[in-house]
Amino acid sequence: MFSRDALGYDPIPLPDRCDISDADMLGAAQAFYEKMRQRHTVRDFSPRPVAREVIESSLRTAGTAPSGANHQPWHFAAISDPALKHRIREEAEEEERRFYAGGAGDEWIKALEPIGTNAVKEHLTIAPWLIVVFAQRWGQFEDGTRYKNYYVPESVNIATGFLIAALHHAGLSTLTHTPNPMRFLNDALDRPASEKPTMIIAVGHPSEDATVPAVAKLKKPLEEISSFF
Ligand SMILES: Cc1cc2nc3c(=O)[nH]c(=O)nc-3n(C[C@H](O)[C@H](O)[C@H](O)COP(=O)(O)O)c2cc1C
Questions:
Q1: For labeling, which of 16, 101, 154, 165 is most exposed (least CB within 10 Å)?
Q2: What is the pLDDT of residues 23-55, one digit of tens each?
Q3: If you classify domain 41-206 with CATH, what class do you get?
Q4: Domain segments of the chain as ranges
Q5: CA 19 to CA 10: how far, in whole Å?
Q6: 138-158 pLDDT, tens per residue?
């Protein structure tokens, strides 16, 4: 997307200036918190379809995220094809079986106990969409030469947060799923070895009988997660 000769510094007036009163600001901040605290990781999905346009718009939101040197070192592979979802599930479950059979180590398995997860990953075939997030170590100029990306995990994780918030805002549920290791996703989705898959986000509507683990609702209070100076 970048061409080498279009990278000079060119300041333009700030677009989209936000003109909000102090009172409205507090209301807006609180309303957003109310919205975001209603996001719950869902593991039981309904097969109800979700329009591709909703996924596209949410990915556009992800693409607005800040990134090191604005290199936008991410790629999102969105999958609704049932055969491909089936393949991803088979390969993910193979990794998960190894993980739960001892690969993870006792401490990790213990930490997952209250979440109630196991090696069966039905959501990978039932959820109407899977979005696989890839982190790009390198980018390419239009002429095909490479450039290095900076702060890749930080940038990709911020974009992923934007994506999860956008999907939630659209009324959808998500599951951030991280089979370990995940390299099989490069082959399945035809992505180059220079890209690292960071997670699979299952997207859709919750099933009628969906539950969440009670511990997931225990969020640290503000005093614990922040300090003011
Ligand atoms: C990086 C990351 C990896 C995760 N991996 C998994 C996973 O592999 N399987 C799973 O069921 N949940 C996974 N989760 C979801 C967490 O278990 C969940 O976010 C947590 O229990 C809190 O619940 P909440 O998202 O509803 O607030 C992951 C979350 C994150 C941020």
A1: 16
A2: 999 999 999 999 999 999 999 999 999 999 999
A3: alpha beta
A4: 41-206
A5: 24
A6: 998 888 899 999 999 999 999
